[in-house]
Structure formats: structure tokens, C-alpha cells
Design a protein that fits this description.
The protein is of the alpha+beta class and 244 residues long. The chain has a domain of 168 residues: NADH Oxidase. Helix content is 34%, strand content 16%. The strands form 2 sheets. Strands 1-2-6-3 form a 4-stranded antiparallel beta sheet, sandwiched between helices. It has a two-stranded antiparallel sheet with strand order 4-5. The structure holds cobalamin (B12). The site of cobalamin has 25 residues, from helix 5, strand 5, strand 6 and helix 6.
């Protein structure tokens, strides 16, 4: 069996080829933060990784998946991009055999409820990869107490140009010695945090929350075009990816 460092390195390398990144954390760190309905029922020292798609996932993971998919969106009930993530994660995990691994995707709901299986933003924060900015962080909020303001994560390099895709649980691997690494709060000033939450909640379609600070990389023009095209009209772009 691999050590934690070996597992981390292997998974990181495999996912990197697809433009995906992973960061380890313990289930206990996640469970301490969320309400009981969102907790994950494993030993508190259980090893997990949160998976982030970087801007290059589209070109390194998604387009190659589309090109290799001979069945043409074989499972049309599922979003094509979600299928690509799932396929990349399967490939990466299969290359590290002999572990009981469970994957919880961002879009999966607990059966019979409308609650997600996992809150990937909280997972991202406790892994140290991204900082989750929430209404409760603001000392003098400009919003009324009953106004719903959704929280948003920022990555130190990609700022808002990434997505939190999944949590991988190594069900029988306990890592009591994993050291907690707090995420970087890159918005030191409260006005900027309010601005971020306003952009994310009120104008998320204009993408401006993703540029609250200058990122090292953004989604390509093609990727932005794909996401801004309604899912029912994406087949033209899919055909284009297949043909080139
Ligand atoms: C449901 C959902 C929505 C819903 C409701 C949003 C919401 N937050 O409830 C709707 C449809 C409105 C929505 C919209 C959008 N969404 Co959305 N959504 C989700 C989804 C599937 C679940 C979120 C959820 O149900 N949260 C439940 C609430 C209760 O959680 P919470 O508010 O975080 O509360 C918890 C924390 O506060 C925690 N907690 C308490 N104290 C503390 C303290 C600390 C320090 C920490 C860390 C945690 C913590 O405990 C609480 C739970 O008990 C997530 C993916 C996922 N599986 O997590 C994506 C997700 C949040 N959405 C995302 C995005 C990008 C969007 C959109 C921009 C559209 C899009 N996909 O492009 C818009 C923007 C919002 C808007 N203006 O409409 C991204 C956010 C990425 C980021 N950078 O943070 C996510 C993570 C999806 C992804 N794949 O990356 N979304």
C-alpha cells in the first residue's frame, strides 16, 4: 500500500494530464463545518481529495473525451461535461488499484432529497485549495438578514476560473497525521468581499466575479462560448470538436 504522499503524487499526476487538480483533506474537517444532513458517514480520519477543474480541463480532458466518444454522447440523460469528468476520474482511479474508493460528484443528490451528496465548496475550503467567502464572513453586511446570499470560492491562481467537481473518498485509508493547511484569503479588504458576493449573486452570468482579481489563466474563448450556449444547442459545437 502507498503512503499518503505516494497516493497524493500519483493521483495528482494522473489528474494533471486532464487539467484536473486534487487536494487532500480528512472527513472530520468537513463534518465539523456542515450541518448533520450534509455530513459524510465515515471515520473522521478518512482520507478524501477534492477535485478541481482548471481552465485547461476543457482542452485537455473534455475535447479529447468528446473526440473518443464513438457513441456520440452515449448517455444523453447526463451532461456531456459531467460524463467527461466521470470518465477522467475513473481512468485516474483505476491506475491506483486495490483501494475502496467512492466518488461523489458535485451534481449528485442524496436519494429522495434535494440535498447534494457533498458540498464541494466546504470540501475545497477545508482542503486549503480554495477559500469559501460567505455572508457570515462579513462584519457589516449591506444585505437584509433574510436575503439569501450564496457563498463562492476563489482559487489563489485561477481566482474564479475553475469549478469544484467531486470528492474522492479512500474509504479505508485513515490519515490521522494529515496536517491542516488553511486556504489563502486573497481578498483582505471587506469591501472587496462584499463586491465578490454581489457579483456572484447578482451578475454571475457576466463572469465578472471570476475576475475580482487578475487570474493567471481564464477559460478559452471556445470554452466560454460552449458554456454560454444553452445545452440544447451545444450539438453544433460538439460536432465541431469531433471534426477537428
Ligand atoms: C444547489 C446549487 C446551486 C443553487 C443554489 C445555490 C446554493 N449555494 O445553495 C443555484 C441554482 C441558485 C445555483 C446557482 C449557481 N451556481 Co451553484 N451549486 C449548487 C450546488 C449543486 C449545491 C449547493 C448547495 O446546495 N448548498 C447548500 C447550502 C446550505 O450550502 P452552504 O450555503 O455552502 O452552507 C454550508 C456552509 O456554510 C457550511 N459551513 C458552515 N459554517 C462554515 C464555516 C466554514 C469556514 C466553511 C468552509 C463552511 C461552513 O455549512 C453549511 C451547510 O450546513 C453546488 C455544488 C455542490 N455539490 O456543492 C453548486 C455550486 C455552488 N454552484 C456553482 C456555480 C458556479 C453557480 C452559478 C454561477 C451557475 C453556474 N453553475 O455557472 C450560479 C451562481 C449563483 C446565483 N447567483 O444564482 C459552483 C461555485 C464555484 C465556486 N467558485 O464557488 C458550485 C460549487 C458548482 C461547481 N461545480 O463548481 N447553484
Amino acid at each position: 500500500m502507498e503512503t499518503l504522499d505516494e497516493l497524493n503524487t500519483k493521483l495528482t499526476e494522473r489528474l494533471h494530464d486532464f487539467g484536473l487538480e486534487c487536494y487532500p483533506f480528512k472527513i472530520g474537517w468537513y463534518n465539523e463545518r456542515v450541518k448533520s444532513g450534509f455530513q459524510l458517514e465515515y471515520h473522521e480520519d478518512t482520507l478524501c481529495f477534492v477535485v478541481i477543474s482548471s481552465p485547461s480541463f476543457f482542452e485537455k480532458g473534455f475535447i479529447p473525451f468528446v473526440r473518443n466518444d464513438t457513441e456520440n454522447g452515449s448517455n444523453l440523460k447526463q451532461d456531456y461535461l459531467d460524463q467527461a469528468i466521470s470518465s477522467c476520474l475513473k481512468t485516474a482511479i483505476q491506475s491506483i488499484p486495490n483501494y475502496d474508493v467512492s466518488v461523489l460528484h458535485d451534481y449528485e443528490m442524496r436519494p429522495g432529497t434535494r440535498r447534494p451528496k457533498v458540498l464541494v465548496q466546504t470540501a475545497g475550503h477545508v482542503s486549503g485549495a480554495v477559500y469559501l467567502y460567505q455572508k457570515t464572513d462579513i462584519n457589516n453586511p449591506p444585505w437584509s438578514t433574510d436575503q439569501a446570499i450564496y457563498g463562492v470560492c476563489l482559487h489563489p491562481n485561477y481566482i474564479g476560473w475553475f469549478a469544484l467537481r467531486a470528492v474522492i473518498i479512500f474509504q479505508k485509508v485513515l490519515v490521522p497525521d494529515l496536517v491542516f493547511k488553511p486556504p489563502k484569503d486573497i481578498l483582505v479588504d471587506e469591501t472587496k468581499k462584499i463586491e465578490l458576493l454581489n457579483r456572484y449573486n447578482k451578475n454571475w452570468q457576466d463572469y465578472s466575479f471570476r475576475d475580482i482579481l487578475p487570474p493567471t489563466e481564464r477559460y478559452s474563448k471556445l470554452q466560454q462560448e460552449y458554456f454560454s450556449t444553452p445545452p440544447s444547442e451545444r450539438s453544433r459545437l460538439i460536432e465541431l470538436f469531433k471534426a477537428n
